[in-house]
Amino acid sequence: MKNFAKLLAGILLASNFIACTSQSGKAPKLSNNMDSVSYAIGVWIASGPANVPDKSQINLKLVQKAMADYFAGNDSVFSRQELQNILQKFSMDQQQKQAEVDKIEDEKRINEGKDFLAKNKEKAGVVETASGLQYKVIKEGSGRQPHDSSFVKVNYKGTLLNGKVFDSSYDRGEPAQFRLDQVIRGWTEGLQLMKEGSVYEFYIPSELGYGNRAMSEDLKANSTLIFEVELLEVMAEE
């Protein structure tokens, strides 16, 4: 049990710097449970916290030697403190590089959004409010009109400027229900312009959407959003 614990400790240590690099692409022959465990441990180590963006940077032979030396009980080239220092510096360098990339991409999305909205507001039928929200009436309803404290039921489709759909109640096959003051500002404002039965298209600046928050791999920070929204029902008010 102590030896197994030592083995796991070594694996945890190694997982801080090993990145996933495939040698052959062929499926391994797994003859028994421990073969499966061994392979699973290798995959887990390789895909672990180091998370090197360009895995070609990793010297796989040195990774293999380090693990072989550890399992054989040989002395490491580095002390435990030196290992920690190397890996901490590497992690900080990676974070700084990613932050620089993110900043450039954020600025690009902000500028793309501004350019889009500036051109979009000149199109026929598009109205811009004082907040910067833009909308276009696709279909005007005649039912009740919600307030900021209303609960509503809607169908919607959200797209990015490149046309990619990032969210859709139609795809889920079920309308969304929410209180108007508990959603993004662009929706809170825009839906109060609508009556039941209406279909509007909203063009939402990032500051009226999710701002500098990245909500998913597709929905990144500072994204300008386009929503087609159908107000089905004003359910209740408080």
Quick overview:
The chain is of the alpha+beta class.
Radius of gyration over all CA atoms, rounded: 27 Å
Q: Sheet bearing the most strands, described?
A: 7 strands, antiparallel
> Which topology of the largest domain does CATH recognise?
Chitinase A, domain 3
How far from one another are the termini? 62 Å
The helix/strand class is alpha+beta
- Please tally the β strands and state the result: 7
* Portion of residues within helices: 25-40%
Helix count from the secondary structure assignment = 6
Shape: elongated
Secondary-structure element order, as H and E? HHHHEEEEHEHEE
| CATH architecture call of the largest domain | Roll
How many individual domains?
2
Q: Tell me the β content.
A: 15-25%
For this structure, what is the CATH class of the largest domain? Alpha Beta
Roughly what is the average pLDDT, rounded to an integer? Answer: 84
Low-confidence segments, ≥5 residues, pLDDT <50? Answer: 1-24
Describe it.
The protein is an alpha+beta fold and 238 residues long. It folds into two domains: 76 residues, no CATH class; 126 residues, Chitinase A, domain 3, CATH 3.10.50.40. It is 39% helix and 19% strand. Strands 1, 2, 3, 4, 5, 6 and 7 form a seven-stranded antiparallel β-sheet that branches. α1 packs antiparallel against α3.
